[in-house]
Design brief:
The protein is α/β, with parallel strands linked by helices and 415 residues long. It has one domain: Alkaline Phosphatase, subunit A (3-Layer(aba) Sandwich), CATH 3.40.720. The chain has 11 helices and 16 strands. The chain is globular and about 65 Å long.
Length: 415
Amino acid sequence: MNSRRIFLRDGGIAVLGLSLVPGFVYRAAMATKSKLGRKKTLITIFQRGGADGLNLVVPFGDKDYYLHRPSIGIRAPSSEGTSAIDLDGFFGLHPSMESLLPIYNAGDLAIIHATGSPHPTRSHFQAQEYMESAVPGDKSIDDGWLNRYLVQNPDPASTTFRGVSLGPVLPRALTGSAPALALGNMTSSEMTSDTREMYKTLYDEESDALLSGTAHELFEAMDQLKELNPQGYEPSNGAKYPTQGQQQFPFARNMSQVAQLIKADLGLELAFVDSNDGWDTHQNQEGRFPQLLTRFSQTLAAFYEDLGDRMEDVLILTMSEFGRTARENGNAGTDHGKATVMFLIGGSIQGGKVYGEWPGLAPEVLNENRDLAMTTDFRDVFAEVLVNFLECENPDAVFPDLVLDPARFKGIVGV
């Protein structure tokens, strides 16, 4: 190591090197170690790749849907064969998402259709960047909307675990001046006691109080994670996260670890989880979608069951950078499109309903004659969640280029 300072910058800390803590990257604050008890937690799930909202939540009541998708369209609800799961007589869940139907029927799942970005890009990288910054089209913004929320709503009693990403790097949404923590696989990453003592000695000698203090926060965070015993975690209420053999799928594993952090009362307020298993469906879409959607929906259902009554204080928000084209392509898939769907899951929402203005799929109303048109700006959904769930005190600073209007809120999240 040429310099201890390469591991410490911007008030955060990163521990790198496969022999030390594989998968862990920490950005930690000067915070006190304490248990805060139950508090509200927002979990944001990013379906990277452009999830096809038209087959996730099927508009079987729109005749043009089947004209555009003669081979990959999901059949209207029927008692015979595989077909959409009826929600309201017009929309239906993909048949592989039946795990979510009980949550929808309980009023704890809301769907917002035809959501998207006002920016026209079809680039994955740009669209993801703009969604995580929540300032579409402005490349000068270098922090994320979740981090700006942390800045604008400081909590003097917060811990290192206030903002956490389950992944090896901190996502754009949590990047900024407020401290946040990126975790790899909690069940397989561990610093040996000898290595830990070596680093502790190095940073004890550090003359910079901020660097030394932040390093101690790293070790406190590691101690707290070790106390959780993630390897021995048993979900509550009989919940079963999907597995492949003896191993949980990465998305399922990360969601189960979020559940563990919430139940440990470590002060978790924001959690970010990626789902990047294959949403970019350019070919053979319905050959791949059923398995992907089964795992995705079973994971969400297991998390909901695992948390039990704590879901009253938890809200899950799903998002994707854009949807897919209304028309299937020549490879039985779909290409980069515009609007898609977002899910909200929680005990404090007005669920059991598909929200949003449906623009229709007739050729003359498609975006650029190819995509489902956007009728709900994704930032209005973000804002409703922050204002009405987390009680954000200064939302205008979180969305600097958006004129916030509560009249555009859907009424999904109660105050």
